[in-house]
Amino acid sequence: MFTNALLLVNGNTDQGIIKKNIEATAGILFKHIEQLNIERTRYKGHTEIICKEWGHDYELIIIIGGDGAVHEAVNGLAVLDSPPPLGILPGGTCNDFSRALSIPQQLRRATESIMNGTIRYIDVGQINDRYFTNFCGIGLIADTSVNINDNWKGRLGRFSYFVSALQTLTNTAPFSFKLTIDGYEIVDEAVMLLIANGNFLGTNQLPFQHIILDDGECNIFVVNQGGASLLREYLQAKNPFAWNPDKNDIRHYQGRTIDLQTSSPMKVDTDGEIYMQTPVSITTQSGKTPFLVPS
């Protein structure tokens, strides 16, 4: 039983949806929380501000939202000395990080699952002075986020990600990069660099078995043009592939500290949000951020 908790909902969502979401969750939450405060976020970045300024006042923060809301919440809580646990209730387009945490995607089931769950410390990646939970990347992954059409997203939801990805894959040029992983230097070309902490992307589980959320390391995937065609097949779900480490189309590395430079500045996608450019320095932060997850 928690003495108090804060539930954050997206105030810019349709009022009927807000009411429906609160009705689906509040009754369950009140069984586990003595005092529950509900706050509506008003603008982009508001979740981060609330978590940073109010986080110390609560034993638990819960958000109903997608990966963007999770990204904001973690960036607000990560600066606190002893952040409260974060509970995620899926309410976005892809909800990839909640999928990585094995949280059910139906709202009522998700609420039951986390409130009867346990607290688990999950790795987060620090990229310069910011944080990410699921991934950061450049090239194809960032181009995909830029190309997502808001009208598609509203009508098609998660399928907008796949439409954009398939369009981007047909028009991808390689770029030059210098990557340093725990002191090991790689200079090469690629169409995408993906640094993954979670194991879902665009609602699809990544076909790699190496990704563990609390192993203290990030997984780095270097994708060349041959690897891009494999990703296209995977996104189309016609030929889901098992990654073969003996092939060079997609190369895999693991590490705790990563420095990334490109020949010219490139947009960096962090959890679907784009607001920085290369060069970047990344470190894995272990045991820093607690999450409320299913048992």
From TrEMBL:
Pfam families: DAGK_cat, YegS_C. GO terms for biological process: phospholipid biosynthetic process. NCBIfam families: YegS/Rv2252/BmrU family lipid kinase. It comes from the Bacteria. GO terms for cellular component: plasma membrane. GO terms for molecular function: ATP binding; ATP-dependent diacylglycerol kinase activity. Keywords: ATP-binding, Kinase, Lipid biosynthesis, Lipid metabolism, Nucleotide-binding, Phospholipid biosynthesis, Phospholipid metabolism, Transferase. This is Diacylglycerol kinase family lipid kinase. Residues 1-131 form the DAGKc domain. It comes from Salibacterium salarium.
